[in-house]
Amino acid sequence: MSVLLRTGVGTLCAAARGVIPCLWRGKCFSSGKELGENSPVTPMLRHLMYKIKSTGPITVAEYMREVLTNPAKGYYVHHDMLGEKGDFITSPEISQIFGELLGIWLISEWMATGKSSTFQLVELGPGRGTLTGDILRVFSQLGSVLKNSDISVHLVEVSQKLSEIQAVTLIEENVPLERNAGSPVYMKGVTKSGLPISWYRDIQDVPKGYSFYLAHEFFDVLPVHKFQKTPQGWREVFIDIDPQASDKLRFVLAPCATPAEAFIWSGETRDHVEVCPDAGVIIQELSQRIARAGGAALIADYGHDGTKTDTFRVWGFCGHKLHDVLIAPGTADLTADVDFSYLRRMTQGKVASLGPITQQMFLKNMGIDVRLKVLLDNSDEPSTRQQLLQGYDMLMNSKKMGERFNFFALVPHQRLPNGSHQMNARKSNPSPAPVAGFDELAWR
User: Fold this and answer.
1) pLDDT at 313 over 80
2) Could you tell me where the DSSP H helices lie in 180-332?
3) What is the pLDDT of residue 303?
4) Residue 345 three-state SS
5) pLDDT 10s digits, 318-345
6) Residue 301 has pLDDT above 80, yes or no
7) Which region, left, alpha or beta, applies to residue 257 given φ > 0 means left and ψ of -120 to 50 means alpha?
8) What is the C-alpha separation between 5 and 27, in angstroms, rounded?
9) What's the CA gap between 307 and 338, in Å, rounded?
10) Cβ–Cβ under 8 Å, residues 332 and 381
11) Stretch (H or E) spanning 185
């Protein structure tokens, strides 16, 4: 779920309108499917049409921001979109093995980097809290390993509705939640395993310190600016009211350059790109924190390594069915594939990056086959065994999630062999262990 950032990124939309003439001569773009004759006029659509009539066409980034996180009508603010009854199902909802292996990854990295006495688990956009819950169960099962570490949980969530669902999943019922809507830490409590847990709307409010950051299906919902290369140079894609149908929207090209063009990489060779400044700001924040205090970040999402072009229209879902991004805004999720090459550039060399590698490869390296066998051997219930096998297939099948999802990590330079700080290390020091998931995990 989108993190609210205290940056100037959001002002680009208004600035763009200030420099673009009112007369739009840009050609129209298809939104991916023909709009239905009777597509519903939602409250969000009315809001967007009023906004466009008042100030002119809006960027794709502004459209995404309004549709997903508008305080009055935003999709994430008022919907429980996860699970079988929601608009999409995520990996943690499919199989407990997914979260368990990520818990193992965290402990593996904690051990490889010296077993710090403090340990912050930070999840960005925690969904229903399922992933964090599975990880905390692993922590409890391996309590003897973590017994000397002071662990705390920190969730970054802008949706009040989802934060309440997370609390039900994670909180000890006998310990009341502390609530303070006006505070950067708007909820506090104690997990079922006895760990302190806090909720924030902004990652910048999370205490700095040795931390592991998780972002599962988080970056793909951050607003993107879309650009098309033309004979006149880069032109940004905007959204306008369709002059042929006053209750419908269409894509148009800006007639001149816009301020957001500054985010396009100078070496870009594609003819259509999507750029996410919000993601860049978050990656810079994570990179600075990891470089100064240690820890790591693990990102899992739909994405590519700077090869794809137009991905915005692909992953709008409603009732698990493909949904046109301009139809009935506010009733379905909007996403764009994560450009991991952009995230890598945004680290600005402060940390090392690993990946992206496919979910299939990452989970295989983490020992998913070993874990599945253990669970199957311990289960005599046919329905449970079937559920485990179906979940495994969904996670690993290359035609399902296995190759659609990618894993990407940020670690301190000294975490890797021949890292930038390794040159000054004494030759007698052992080389760092391989990073689990990105190399095959050694089971001992």
Assistant:
1) no
2) 277-293
3) 95
4) helix
5) 544 556 889 889 888 889 999 999 999 9
6) yes
7) beta
8) 33
9) 11
10) no
11) strand 185-190
Alpha-carbon distances, residue 176 vs 168, 173, 179, 190 (angstroms):
11, 7, 9, 8
Longest Cα–Cα distance of the chain, Å, equals 74
Beta bridge partners of 196: 190
Does residue 314 have a pLDDT over 50? no
Neighbours of 28 (CB within 10 A): 13
Region 141-154 average pLDDT: 94
3-state SS assignment for residue 360: helix
| Amino acid (one-letter) located at 394 | M
Conformational region of residue 125, where left means phi above 0, alpha means psi within -120 to 50, and beta covers everything else = left
Q: Tokens 């100078």, residue? A: 266
Q: Which two three-digit tokens encode residue 53?
A: 């009539």
DSSP string, 118-159: EEEEEEES-TTSHHHHHHHHHHHHTHHHHTTSEEEEEEE---
Nearest residue to 290 via CA among 203, 410, 205: 410
Q: What is the pLDDT of residue 160?
A: 87
The backbone torsions φ and ψ at residue 73, rounded to the nearest 5 degrees and listed phi first, read: -130, 5
DSSP string, 225-283: EEEEEETTEEEEEEEEE-TT-TT-EEEEE-SS--GGGGGS-TT---SEEEE-HHHHHHH
The SS3 of residue 432 is: coil
Among 339, 336, 337, 273, smallest CA distance to 309 is for 273
Helices then strands, each counted (H, E), the chain: 14, 18
Reading the block at residue 223, the tokens are 């607003």
Using one digit for the tens of pLDDT, what is the confidence trace for 399-432? Answer: 999 999 999 999 999 999 876 443 333 344 567 8
Instruction: Say which residue the tokens 């994405």 belong to.
Output: 303
Is the pLDDT score of 86 beyond 80?
Answer: no
Contact 211, 150 (CB under 8 A): no
What are 156's strand-pairing partners?
124, 200
Cis peptide before 356 (omega within 30 of 0): yes
Encode pLDDT of 40-83 as tens digits. Answer: 799 999 999 999 999 999 999 999 999 998 988 888 776 655 54
**Which residues 6+ apart lie within 8 Å of 143 measured at CB?**
none
pLDDT tens per residue across span 339-383: 999 999 999 999 999 999 999 999 999 999 999 999 999 999 999
Closest to 120 in 3D by CA, of 26, 23, 238, 208: 208
Consecutive H or E run containing 275: strand 272-275
Cα–Cα distance measured from residue 279 to residue 23, given in angstroms and rounded to the nearest whole number = 32
CB atoms within 10 A of CB 80: 16
Degrees to nearest 5, angle at CA 152 with 170 and 169: 5
Distance CA 217, CA 98 (A): 13
